[in-house]
Amino acid sequence: MDVQVDLHRARLARGLSLEEILGRTALSLGVLKKIDEGRYSELPPGLYARSYVKMFAVEVGVEPELALANLEPVLPAAPD
User: Fold this and answer.
1) Model confidence, pTM
2) Tally of domains within the chain
3) Which residues are CB-contacts of 4 (< 8 A; sequence separation ≥ 6)?
């Protein structure tokens, strides 16, 4: 399952623009674009990336824990 595609498709299915999600979250437009486009390696590492994905998933109607479980391998790890 490609969660990036699912998150993007879920956003489109709900008729939401990134700007609408921006208005309902504390996320920047740059972060929203990275998630929507699947550019996860460009997100801040660790807890930040996971929190951002969870917020995005909630807004587009995707179960946040499912999104995180599927994205865990591609999210940036926290520094040691």
Assistant:
1) 0.89
2) 1
3) 35, 37, 38, 40, 71
